Amino acid sequence: MAKKFTFSAGIHPPHGKKQTEAEPLIGFPTPQKVSIPMAMHIGAPAKAIVKKGDIVVAGQCIGEPSGFVSVPVFASISGEVTAITEVFHPMGQMVPAVEISSNGSEETVTLEPILNWREQSPSDLINRIRDCGVVGRGGASFPTHVKLSPPQDKKIDTLIINGAECEPYLTADHRVMLERTLEFVTGSLITQHILGVEKTYIAIEKNKPDAIAAVKKMLESIGDKKISVIALETKYPQGGEKQLIQAITKRQVPSGKLPMDAGCVVTNVGTAHSIYKAVAHGVPLYRRVVTVTGKSVHKPGNYIIPVGTSIREILEYAETDLSTIKKVLMGGPMMGLALASLDVPIVKSTSGLLVLETTTPAEQEYNCINCGACVQACAIHLIPSHFSKLVKRQKYEECEQKNILDCIECGSCSYVCPSKINLVHYIKLGKNRIAAAKRAQSLRKDGQ
Ligand code: SF4
Ligand code: SF4
Prior knowledge:
Layout: H1 18-21, E1 25-27, E2 33-37, E3 47-48, E4 55-56, E5 61-64, E6 73-74, E7 79-88, E8 94-102, H2 122-131, H3 144-147, E9 158-163, H4 172-179, H5 181-195, E10 199-205, H6 209-222, E11 227-232, H7 241-249, E12 264-268, H8 269-281, E13 287-293, E14 301-306, H9 311-317, E15 327-330, E16 337-338, E17 352-356, H10 373-377, H11 384-392, H12 396-401, H13 412-416, H14 423-447
Parallel strand pairs: 1-14, 9-10, 9-12, 10-11, 13-17
Antiparallel strand pairs: 2-8, 3-5, 4-7, 5-6, 7-8, 13-14, 15-16, 15-17
This protein binds iron/sulfur cluster (2 copies).
């Protein structure tokens, strides 16, 4: 019997990918104006190094990193810096930003390509990846140079390239695997070389058979014995780092620990593509593929869009009937973020825009009937029903003892709850309160 690669628990929401999975990657026209946030990654924001009136070229550095866990930020179009300002980040807070107005030029600037990357030291390649502002494109935006620099006492033997794209409606990674196969596979080989691992797996869910076939064919032609394709069972949240590690290596990442504690590094297909561009072409990360989808989007697709482009402009270009839309999610329906305004820019982590024409009226929440469905669904083996009850009673310490911080906010528990309890909402609230209490405690300590 063929081996099944998957994790225990999880759910099967409708895929919703039909509308865009066959839509080829297509360039978005240069916008008249972009507002590029200096904080698009986990860690310290970049510091703007341009001023109003400066003329910049797409690919030019406009923000310097301010620490190890930070990356530079680049102009995504050519034109004039028209403001050093603040913008509303899609995550919901005001952040410093540089506004650029296009001067019509399509000029770009790159760093020197590194063609002989196999002869380069890992540290030189890591420096190049940092200098090109590469961050995780799968959602968390963790600086990639940090991820590829594990402490010396952590032995990494396995690299997993995450092509699961398990979030419904999103097809950006699918199209990159089909249309940029050699590029992202080369990015995977560069990452393999940097980490010096014995094994690299490109993990793709079985609902993308054309991508599995394309990548297999490419690997056969390359003939590198260390790298292979894994066809994963289609299940949500199969693309979570811990779920991928369990599915492929059968290793468990312990509570509160990271993939490197299980000897693994997991990076996304889009990130591998950005690594290739940074190393082989010297192209910084300033554009990305965004799936634009939803029933009222008349030109749905997988668009390559300059970072900083307004979401309103993107939806208008995709011929979206703005009069009918009720909600726009940045990301998919399970983990996407509801946008408070369309006048916010896309950032390095924007994988998709999902337009919803109806909002389900806030459903009445009923009492927990202790059915256990949420427990069965939870890929992390938590007890979500406990968290909602504890958070309502403000018992945050108890939540922490029950490992609430391990929750990956996948939303599976809320999805299956017959009592319509928005469990993930309570969990996020609990996690925020714990983080706030920790911040207050450390401020008190610093003040002593
Ligand atoms: S508790 Fe967290 S990890 Fe578990 S199903 Fe709910 S949202 Fe997902
Ligand atoms: S799924 Fe809902 S009703 Fe069932 S145990 Fe969990 S919280 Fe309670």
